Amino acid sequence: MESAKPSLLEQAKAALRAGKKGKMAPTTPKAKQAAPEPPAGDDAGDDSLFFSAMQGVAQIGGSGRQVQPPPPPAPELPEDDADPEAKLMRQAMMGSVDFEIEFSDEYMHGYVRGLDSKIFQQLKAGRLSAEGHLDLHGQNADQALDSLLFFMRESYLAGRRMVLVIPGRGKNSPRGLGILRQELQTWLTREPLRRIVLAFCTAQPRDGGAGAIYVLLRKMKKSQGKVAWDKQMNWEDLDR
Q1: How far apart (Å, rounded) are the C-alpha atoms in residues 188 and 168?
Q2: CB–CB of 214/123 below 8 Å?
Q3: Whether pTM exceeds 0.70
């Protein structure tokens, strides 16, 4: 006769009793497989991949937006550029002054190119007061030149702007010609006086007429350089 099969309850009890006698070895969970590390970077390989990928790619033409560099800063202008006379002074110191000259028996004038016409018209009309005068009557050409250089130098250094020079009409000269009048026009437009003279013209009748000359001088500015006066001249002797 066959024996009856143990019930489910009995099977469970039997399993528990067996577990007390010998503990079941714990099952170890499967270790997670580490992801394979990427191979160390190879610069040469990267370059090869890059150039291979770039094959057949056309170079960008010059039609893209052009970025212009910023314009260079404007050069700073000298402070006295707004002063026309200061500009003329710089030209004089560089020896680049040109005169417009007119000469006749009874009238003469000269002025540097670029001089304000209003200033020259005031000079011609006798509206500028003379701050000094030099009378050359009775002197020959050599004496007159020495006297003129000394007088003009002192006037310029003293800051005088308009002076009166009296060469005379020359009625007592040979053939009645005003030799000093002719020479005066040359002296005023040559070195060194050209560096300090802005304009000159025949004076009004009340100031001597054709026998006298108005001379307009520049402003004396130490920063503009020095006038090359004749160093061999004894200025003290002429002042006596």
Answers
A1: 16
A2: yes
A3: no
